[in-house]
Amino acid sequence: MMKAVCLLSGGMDSSTLAYLAQSQGYEILALHLNYGQRTEEKERACAQKIAGLLGAIDFMEVDVRYFSTFGASSLTDRTIAVDTFDPARAHIPNTYVPFRNANLLSIATSFAEAKKADAIFIGVQSLDYSGYPDCRPAFIEAFQRVIDLGTKEDTRIRLVTPFIHFTKTDILREGQRLHVPYEHTWSCYRNETRACGTCGSCHFRREAFAALGIRDPIPYEG
To answer: What is the CA radius of gyration of the chain?
Structure first.
């Protein structure tokens, strides 16, 4: 069978992505990265649960906590308050972790080449999300070139981003088709017990569930 490394954070997008990869005939090599994020324990538990439900042939957990040392993001520096979603925001929110996806994709490429995987799936999204520069199509195209140039001549790894032109509602609609168990996913940037409901990630998740008239199965404050 074909094998795919799936970057699995335990969130809504990456979990839907892993279910989609499996539906396309891939065996799943789940890769979970701990980078010192506020909700690290909850995300890890969700990622492990989703990987187990999918019958992943591997679950690799890697610590990249140097992001916490670098700081400059509210996800990794607890002295910075997480931005509340603001529809009028003109700047990239402080939840952006500098150049994170390039680091994560580099690790995923090493894992994929070592395991002779055919693809790397990552759930980046560029439409209604937060404007992160490392989620743009041009970045993904450039990184595919990096993979092609930086691996062995007989290595063929395809970088797959099926959600890059999706809205969060599109992703949820696809997840409903795939029967993704969203009760085992977590999106909140602030909390691990009850989602805050007001950070950017919570906002877009709740908006998607409301748009489709579906009850979000995770608990929220208030």
So the answer is: 17
Average pLDDT, the chain: 96
pLDDT at 19: 99
Encoded amino acid at 140, one letter? I
Please report, as a single letter, which amino acid is at residue 30.
A
Which CATH number does the domain housing residue 29 bear? 3.40.50.620
CA–CA distances in Å: residue 80 to residues 71, 77, 189: 9, 6, 12
- Is residue 146, in this structure, part of any structural domain at all? yes
Residue 194 lies in a domain: yes
* CA neighbours closer than 13 Å in the CB half-sphere of residue 142: 9
- The total of other beta-carbon atoms located within 10 Å of residue 88's CB is 4
Which DSSP category does 123 fall into? -
pLDDT digits (tens, 9 = 90+) for 43-57: 999 999 999 999 999
- CB distance 113 to 33 below 8 Å: no
CA distance 112 to 4: 8
Q: How many CB atoms lie within 10 A of CB 153?
A: 6
218 vs 91: which has the higher pLDDT? 218
